[in-house]
Amino acid sequence: MKTLSKVYTALILLFLFAPIVILIVFSFNGSNSTAVMSGFSFQWYEELFHNSNILEAVRNTLVLAVASAVISTIMGTAAAVGIFRLRSKYLRAALDTVTNIPMINPDIITGISLMLMFVFVGRFFGLSNSLSFWTMLIAHVTFCLPYVILQVLPKLQQMDKSLPEAAMDLGCTHFRAFLKVEIPELFPGILTGMIMAFTMSLDDFVISYFTAGPGFQTLPVLIYSMTKKTVKPTIYSLATIIFFVILALLTLSNLVDSDTDKAIKEARKKKKAKNQAN
Questions:
Q1: What SS3 state is found at 68?
Q2: What pTM value is reported for the model?
Q3: 47 CB contacts (<8 Å, ≥6 apart)?
């Protein structure tokens, strides 16, 4: 059974990462062939940094991802604190359900519904173009919010409730105690939520496709338009760079979470030893 489980795990990892490995290998191919490796070359990376259309799409994608990650992190953290402090368990359960809807709802349904809402509001106010960068930003914040909330809520549940009370006993106001005591305790969850929001926004195609306005094109939408013709190997090199950037962000997130867990365990051990000594 152990051998079978190892083989099963190896096959899963192979199916998951084999396409990525092939993409990375062919990003260094000397020709534009997708079947024959003719030699090692950096020409597609050089061409990538001279392609104005791709660079503009990358810039638009990064601006949108950073803006949506920052806004959704601020709003998600505030929402998580508000949900955690609710006294009514029925209201909390209702808000938890509402929070999960954007995650469970298919992207195409979310994209179409948001597009119809933006067009309706734009026509109501007499706007010539109902869709723009701002509609995309609102849409991205909408589906990124739940991921931030679900990362911050567990940290609130793990936090010692007596810490902000002790800070207020020492003279801090509610807001100052929140900034000085609660935010540092919640920081790992906030950072993880921000990274997840950034990656989700960076990766999104369906919702961006339906809510994009003229003159603002993100990278996934640009790549989709290229598939109607021929995808050049410059996209392979760009995908390789994005893959390693995301890998670095996820590694950073995991390191922060592991350090936090160690600190929590050590604090609990010290507290337990202190109680036993008393």
A1: helix
A2: 0.78
A3: 232, 234
Tell me how crowded residue 252 is: count the other CB atoms within 10 A of its CB: 13
> Quick count: other Cβ atoms within 10 Å of Cβ 219?
25
- As a whole number of angstroms, the distance between CA 230 and CA 34 comes to 11
**In the Cβ-directed half-sphere of 148, how many Cα atoms lie within 13 Å?**
29
Angle between helical axes of 133-158 and 89-104 (0-180°, round to 10): 130
Say which amino acid occupies 38. Answer: S
User: Which tokens is 259 given?
Assistant: 């350090």
User: By three-state DSSP, how is residue 32 classified?
Assistant: coil
Looking at residue 1, its amino acid is M
Give the integer Cα–Cα distance in Å for 96 and 100: 6
Q: Greater confidence, 228 or 106?
A: 106
| pLDDT tier, 74 (very low <50, low <70, confident <90, very high otherwise) | very high
Residue type, 57: A
Q: What pLDDT digit, counting tens, does each position of 217-248 carry?
A: 888 888 888 777 777 788 888 888 888 887 88
Location of structure tokens 């939408």: 221
Q: Are 206 and 26 in contact (CB under 8 A)?
A: no
CATH entry 3.40.980.10 includes domain 53-277: no
Q: How far is the C-alpha of 147 from the C-alpha of 200, rounded, in Å?
A: 9
Helix runs in 85-215, H state only: 89-104, 107-124, 133-158, 162-169, 174-177, 183-203, 206-211
200: nearest Cα among 147, 151, 236:
147
Mean pLDDT of 185-192: 86
What's the alpha-carbon Rg for the chain, to the nearest Å? 23
